[in-house]
Design brief:
Layout: E1 16-18, E2 24-26, H1 31-51, H2 55-75, H3 88-102, H4 118-143, H5 150-170
Antiparallel strand pairs: 1-2
Helix pairs in contact: 1-2, 1-4, 3-5, 4-5
Amino acid sequence: MVKLTKIYTKSGDNGVTSLGDASRVPKIHEIFEGISIIDELNSYVGVVLIYINNHEVQQLLLQIQNDLFDLGAELSNPRIDKKIFITNDLIEQIENQIDHFNAYLPKLNSFILPSGSSASAHLHVLRTIARKAERIIWKLIEYSNYEISKPIAVYLNRLSDLFFVLARYENRSCEERLWRPKT
């Protein structure tokens, strides 16, 4: 258990901060792009929870918040042997949730516009943040010297799919607005 006895330490006032292994790195280090987008994603899950009334969806989002904290912890620890939080089992759990909620939805014959209920609209924003997080993690995997496990990017990919399905699920009582391309 983490104990936070003092919120401000002043140790980062010179642009340097600590990673999970206590190593000190500049705050502009590329890994913080990944850590910060995961923090943004997790924070927005908290916003979405305000709009969700379904207990099952609430519990799922709370679990995702905990998983995202684990993901952030994994990113903040530079030792690859400690990369254990985001696993293929966790990815499979997300896939099972996608299948579960998608079973309640009509088939899609077109792209849909992000709209509908407040919950749905916020879930669509959450989906876009998850996509952005995935791109940032792939960039770190491909181009940084920092070792990041690929299941993190796969997890974020599935998570964005889940948010899309949940947005549709929350809109079951609304008519979905379809994209009408100019052709």
